[in-house]
Amino acid sequence: MRVGLQIALSDASVDVAQPLSQRQLSVSMSAIADEFSRTAPLNLCLILDHSGSMSGRPIDTIRQAAQRLVDRLSLGDRISIIGFDHKAKVLVPHQIVDNPASLKLQINQLKASGGTAIDEGLRLGVEEMAKGKQGTISQAFLLTDGENEHGDNDRCLKLAKLATGYNLTINTLGLGDAWNQDVLESIADAGGGAMSYIQNPEEAVTEFTRLLNRVQSIGLTNAHLLLSLAPGVRLAELKPISQVAPDTIELTVLQEGSQSIVRLGDLMVEVPRIILANLYLNQMAAGSQAIAQAQIRYDDPATNAEGLLSEKIPVYADYLSDFQPNPHPDVQQQILALAKYRQTKIAETKLQQGDMAGAATMMQTAAKTALQMGDEGAATVLQQNATQLQSGEGLSESDRKKTRMVSKTTLQAE
Fold it and tell me: Cα angle at 351 between 378 and 180, to 5 degrees?
């Protein structure tokens, strides 16, 4: 298994007469399997809310969804299951999957009662998952239907960051409309995973399966972008590097000497992870100029190899005296995806501040951006929200959660 790495500038041509030019550098990476490649076993931890609000149809469908996941696991995969209400308990300690029927019986013991303490469930989940992290692809599915009423949201974020330090990925799933999208998004972003929205209990099996398909396509883990910039080139000071696929996330950049380093996490086979780096280029002599170099550091859990390095890819810009704009179409689409996310975030902030008119205007701008990039599903949701706000209506919790989801992703077909 190796890394496939592709780079492109938003416009590789630069006006030699300009003292300063701005460009977006797109870096796309995925895991590439060859005929001898094998995939490491999955180390899955289910962290399931069974508080009192889950009683009835919700807990029934979550039990069913979890049992379906067990059916989809391969012999040799690892599993652990945590249940939490206002306290947390290890229902299935970390073990190799060799008796699915027994696991499903234990899942059936989940009963709804109590309050909600997400951080306690997450703490036990990280502990159990860490027991099987060697030579595996470690993934947690954290599901809740409510606020962290008996817990500490800051502790959740710290635990998610701790998990990535051990190369464990945290995915979050919100069920119904009473969970907090800010909390679950921050856990998933910090934990290197994805956030999912299960609007109705009947959708639980489908969402769990979709997320399992995603993690089963992972080939490499713990990927970091190593970006070196030439003299006269710098990153933007504000939000310099962002991920735009498969989800939109604002990333944290660390400086080590002359290198900018960004943790990216897991790399899937055939599904690229794409980031945009916002660069400023000083005036340079006419001709082709090397402005940057990109490389990926990663782990291959199938071979227990850590700290592997991809090839180094140089980035060139053409400084032209007869400059004509020549935008790269794929990078332009990626820029629009990031704009859609940021415009929606501004709209949400204005709404929280009580500025409904400002929120409506920015939501409409985001809808136009989504339409421009061909994301008709997001455009529909965002425009409906803008229309509601313009008419003086607020947004329901369901509307707010749909808004957050379409801002981060392109709606997937079932």
Answer: 75
